[in-house]
Structure prediction request, 144 residues.
Amino acid sequence: MIDEETKITTGGCFCGAVQYEVEGPLRGIVNCHCTQCAKLNGNFGAHSKALKSKITIVKDEGLSWYKISDIARRGFCRKCGSGLFWDHIEQNALGIIAGSLDRPVDLKTLGHIFVKDKADFYEITDDLQQFKGSSNGELEGDYL
Prediction:
């Protein structure tokens, strides 16, 4: 049986210039339907999350940060453009773009946030929790 506290999950960008490891548990996936995620991902953003203290950048030949507000920034690879992280600088956890995780990840989708901003070209058809804005920590495993 895998010990969730010592398990190592790996991930990185498309070109391999940025690689990271996460020690311990990851939060399940939250689908964010905000306008920023749509602009950055072409649709909604699927995000996991882990404590910042448990994330190690093991290869950094391209990690850049883009400040998107006074309290948040996005981490991406400046070589290939892959989105990697979403950082609320006042929180002790870092959002991880789910597609950047190496598979298999064995994570389940927990719910949907910012559905009031959802694009009109798709529907949410599952029975998972939906929030008009932020979940404000109501989803399992959220670190606030």
Residues 8-120 form a domain with the Metal Binding Protein, Guanine Nucleotide Exchange Factor; Chain A fold (CATH 2.170.150.70). The radius of gyration is 15 Å.
